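Standup notes
- HV: blocked on the assembly model, inputs below
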Amino acid sequence: MKEKLGGFHVFILIHMTQVGVGIFALPRVAAEYFGYNGWLMLVVIAAIVAFNLYLIWLVWKMGKGESIFVIFENCLPKWMVYPFYMIIALAWSLSGSLVAKEYVLIFQVTAFPTANPMIFMFVLSLLAYLLIIKGIYAIVKASTVFIFLVLWMAPLGATFINDLKLSRYTHYFLQEGKEHGMGLFNLYSSFLGYELLLLLFPYIQAKTRLFTSAHLANIFSFLMYLSVTLICFGFYSLQQLKLIMFPCIDLLAYIRFPFIERAENGLFSFLVFRVLITIVMYHWAASLTVQRIFKNKKFAQVTLYTMAVTFVVSFMPGVLDEVGKWLSIVTYFDFAFAFGLPIFLIGILSLQRWRQQHV
Amino acid sequence: MAIWDRLLFSFSRRAEKGLRQFELPSSLETAKSDEPVSLAHIMEQFEDCIDVFQRSIPSAGIDIVYIPHLIDPMRFTKEIVDPLSKAQDAQDVRDVLAQSNFWHASDSKKVVKGILSGKAAIFHEGNVYLVIVYGPKSRGVEQSETESVITGPHDSFTESANTNLSLVRRRVKSSHLKVVKLEVGEITKTIVYVLYIKDIVNMELVDEFVRRITNIEIDAVYDGNMFTQYIDDFPNSLFPQFLITERPDTAVSKLVSGRILAIVDGSPTVVSGPTGFFDFFSSADDYYQRWSIGTATRVLRFIAFVITISFTAIYVAVTTYHYEMIPEALILTLRESRSKVPFPPVIEAMLMEVTIELLREAGARLPTKIGQTIGIVGGIVIGQAAVQAGLTSNILIIAVASSAISSFVIPSYVMSASIRLIRFGLIVLAGIWGNFGLMLGIGFIVVHLCGLTSLGTSYLSPFAPTKWSDWKDVFIRGPFSILTSRPNQVRTNNEEKAKMRK
């Protein structure tokens, strides 16, 4: 019996793909580029994502749930489509590998300074690979389990209520910021992941309220980012916030329980599940794209090769800063695909519709 | 194999049309052979089988062949010997043999098989008749030892499939309960009864279940636990994919919820499927207690599960890498306790865990009286001597003991054994990478569980995919007033309970 994805599955998948490593540095990015009350920019970003989701929904409606690969291949010749597929797949797969690398490097900095990060990364990639080859339905199931394994941490924010100073949410808005354009892009990169919805079309039940689920996921991610950023802006001063590389992780260090002295290490480990789904979804999307070129190869084989290539590439950036730079370059591509693909597809579908009407 | 395939095909065609006749094994019996059906030939087949008896009644001109310890002597005398001995002439004998319980057999294979399965073969004027007089001595219905409950029925299944069938039939007085007879094992020819309730069960699942059983290629089947390994979706997984129970009430509850049962002759356990990971955490007791108490007990079992898999691993992770997590008041005690231990925490923990497993295994294998001694000796050795000798810290003893006790809270022994084994992997990972290793281990388990299915249905149901409506009978034991629907996992069209009143 072939399973199909329902609204709740889509909600979980998108939310889990969106929230990854970006959350650790998000308050700093907001503070650095937008200054006082920089968290307000999250509202703008969430609105842009909502518009992008609307475009994706249009593709779904116009294409009647058809796979985007089929739409492309019906209208463009293979010699044009295949190189395009390769570029998309490379960008997505690299996104997955670099997110993994960033997570393990952060983990190395916080807990295992002497360990080789690539060994961590290998194990993380292995785990991701084992999940990817089980198919999208298993990925959804794993996401469901993982979301429950990490969601219990959300109420921990309440422990900071007494430490928040209202005076830090000054009436100054977006002052002491710089390069707003770059800041907008950096904040936006934390929301990315929703664009993979484009690849889920063939797996979604016809009656699923795709648009609603996707928006709810985006709103949920936005609320999560907003709560974390608000806590950081109220807990730290603006200058502190600009200096701390990963304010979220530092924030975890302040959480104490009667039976655990400093829980940040344990809590940070739990976040591997969030990062894992982001990694899995990007690699899954890349493998699916590559398989359109090598149709005779098995999905597990394609995934292995794709992941292996980007794993090797991820050896190159050695420190967090370099990984950050690489990741921002790849994010440009992801950003372009997030907007470019739906617009392009809407164009193709409109053209097809126009042709049908005039034949 | 060709016959099997053809039969399977015809079976599934009938299934599509809604005409369901499970005739696979019995159809095979009808395969004709050219061998003669004579007394001499049959006795030749049983050469050197001293337990096969031949009895003659010269006045009636008949010979009877049977295996005494497979038959009920009273029934044998009443149904065969008495009427045939009283026959006055050949016509009287023919009249007796014309009765419906005397079944004419024309095939020697069928006769041999009949004798082996507790029938008596009657040879008369070149014809052979088979009569069912099966009735060997078997163990009486006793209390379950592995699934004991405080409240509720105390009877349990026995090794006799017929007794087990009767235990189910006594509880389900409905013609909707259907029983299919199958045969497994090339040599043992073990009978397997497949039970399901028509109009509740999803017939696609029954089809799949029957298909898997008929595809089993094996010499012998001795037990239900062994049997499940041949029909598992993932035989190499550590996790059981079919629920095994000794309790008739549990088995019946599974039937009523739309699941399928398999009763294996010679096994005191009954197999039920499809099943999910969380089914292994519920006990019959939950339903016999008040719902609030049942819920508390069930929640306790999930806490026990978390303790079992994580306690020792957390100890290893914290004492190896994350000392900062230990509260100040405890760190002095721990440091003092650990200062005498020469091994790294992971070795220390493995040493203790293996010792606990040794004690458990020894306790399970030895007779009860000696088993108690093992418990006492083990308790002293682990509880005091190991700490005093500096082999382990006393905090680890607490972690290992809590972990071991918690593993026994899980009602299913099979699942409990799987979880205990997984724990070792987590301890090693925690020893290598601390908290991160522990999380990776949990990640591997979750990924594995997500890929598992039971009869093609999701193993993690109703958690993933999430079916909120089923949570009220999985993570809690809701009041009966709200337990009105059948689980989503069984994919039944008859979702509402109490809908079969006809």
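- HV (later): unblocked. DSSP finds 17 helices and twelve strands in chain B. The first strand of chain B starts at residue 53 and ends at 57.
- Next: hand off to the docking folks.
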